[in-house]
Amino acid sequence: MAFLVGRTDMYGKKFFRTLFVVTYMVPPYVGAMAWLRLLNPNAGVLNRFLMKIFGLGTAPFNIYTTSGIVWVLTCFFYPYAFITISRAMEKMDPSLEEASRISGASPLKTLLKVTIPMMTPSIIAAGLLVFVASASSYGIPSIIGAPGQIYTVTMRIIDFVHIGSEEGLTDAMTLAVFLMLISNIILYISTFVVGRKQYITMSGKSTRPNIVELGKWKLPITIIISVFSFFVIILPFITVAITSFTVNMGKPLTLSNLSLKAWEKVFSRASIISSTTNSFLAATAAAFFGILISCVMAYLLQRTNVKGKRIPDFLITLGSGTPSVTIALALIISMSGKFGINIYNTLTIMIIAYMIKYMLMGMRTVVSAMSQVHPSLEEAAQISGANWLRMLKDVTLPLIAASIVAGIFLIFMPSFYELTMSTLLYSSNTKTIGYELYIYQTYHSQQVASALATAILLFVILVNYILNKLTKGQFSI
C-alpha cells in the first residue's frame, strides 16, 4: 500500500493516504467492537449476509479465535508500518531505480531487485514496531479473546492484579517485567541495530522519487484498493454507527427496529458524563504538563551543552517503549503509600501514567521543530537588545507554535481514550471513558457501547480537523 500510494500514479492517492491511517487515530478497542459487529458467529452483519447469499447453515467466520484477534490487531496497527515505510520511500534516492530501468529492467523487477532491498531496514523496523504495539495491546484481545477463552500476557497481568492479593500482584509484576524487557529489547534492535544497517538511499541533493506508471493496471488496482479499503476500514465503523441506532441487533434493520435511546443514555447517564469529564481533565493535564516538559527538553537538547542532557531524553523514550500495564503496575507499587507517596485511586496517578506513556510523541514534535530554527535568528534578537525571555516569546515560540499545538494534541488524544492503564488505576470516582465503554460492551448494552464508540470516533475526527486548521495542514492525518 505504501508503494502504491507513494510511488505510482494510482487514482486518488491523497485520499487513500489519509484513509489508510484513519485507524491510527482510532482507539483499538473501538476497532475490536467494529469487527465484532461484522464477524460475530451468532449475529455478525457480514456473517448473516454471507449465510443468506450462499445458503450456509453456519457462520463462515468466527471472530472469537486467535486468527480473529490477529486480524483485528493487523487492521489497527498496520498504520505504524505504513507510515514508517511511506516516509522512507519519500526520502529514497531514485538514481538506483533509474539505473535499473535504463539497464532494461521492468518496473516489477526494479521493485523486487532494487526498491525492496533498499527498504529492508525500514521494513524490519516497521515490523518490529507493530510487534511491540500488538504484544502490549489489551483492548483488542480482551474484547475478542475473552469470550473464546483466549488470553494474552496483558490480559493475565490485569487478571492477576484484580485478584487483589500479594501473590497476584507479584505474578502480575513478573509478567509485566518480562513484557517490558521483550518490548524494549525489540525497540533497541529496531532503533539502533537496524538503524545502523544503512543502505545508501538518500543523496545529498534534493530528489523526487520516481513515479511508476501503472498503465492499463491503473484503474483495476484503484478499484481493488477501493474495495479493500471499504471492507477493512469503512464498513466496520459504519456497522458500529448503525448498531447504536438499533433496538434489537438480531432483527432486520427496519424503521421499527431503530431508536435513539442508546444516544439518549450516552448524553444523560451520570456514569458516562462523569467518566468523560475525568478523561478530559486527565488528558488535558497530561497534555499541558507534557508539552511544558517537551519544550524544556527541546531547548535543553538543541540549545545547550549541559552534560547528561541525553539522560532525561533516554528516560522519556524508555517510558514510551514500556508496555502500559508495566507503567500502571510500577505506579501502583511505588505510589500507593509503601514509599511515602500515596496518590493511588486519584486522577493524579493517571495523569502521571499518561505523561510517561505519551509524552514522547509531543517531545519529538517540538524537538524536530526546534532543530529547524537556526540559532542565528535568536542571536540576532539578543544582539538587538532582547533579553532571553523576550527572545523566546518573539522569535522561538512563534516559529515552533504549530509544533507545540500538534504536540499538545498528540499527547491529549491517546490519553483521552486510553484503556489499559486506566483499567488498573481507576477508582469508583476516577473511571474514564475508555473503561466505561469497555464495561458497557462487556457487561451492559452493546447499543450504548456502540453509541459511545461512535461519539468517541466523531470527537477524534473533530480534533484532527481542528489540528489541521490550527497548524495550517502541517500536522494531521
UniProtKB/TrEMBL annotation:
The UniProt entry's GO biological process terms, in alphabetical order, are: transmembrane transport
Q: How does it sit in the membrane?
A: Multi-pass membrane protein
User: Which InterPro entries does the UniProt entry name for this protein?
Assistant: MetI-like, MetI-like_sf
Q: Enumerate the spans annotated as ABC transmembrane type-1 domain.
A: 1-190, 276-467
Keyword Transmembrane on this protein? Answer: yes
- Assigned GO CC terms: plasma membrane
The record's subcellular location field reads: Cell membrane
Pfam families to which the protein is assigned, alphabetical: BPD_transp_1
Q: Which UniProt keywords apply?
A: Cell membrane, Membrane, Transmembrane, Transmembrane helix, Transport
ATP-binding listed as a keyword: no
Q: Which residues cross the membrane?
A: 15-38, 69-89, 175-196, 217-242, 280-301, 313-335, 341-360, 397-417, 448-467
The superkingdom of the source organism is: Bacteria
Hey, which family's this protein in? Belongs to the binding-protein-dependent transport system permease family. CysTW subfamily.
- PANTHER family in the cross-refs: INNER MEMBRANE ABC TRANSPORTER PERMEASE PROTEIN YDCU-RELATED-RELATED, IRON(III)-TRANSPORT SYSTEM PERMEASE PROTEIN SFUB
* Annotated protein name in UniProt: Iron(III)-transport system permease protein SfuB
Q: Which organism is it from?
A: Fusobacterium animalis 11_3_2
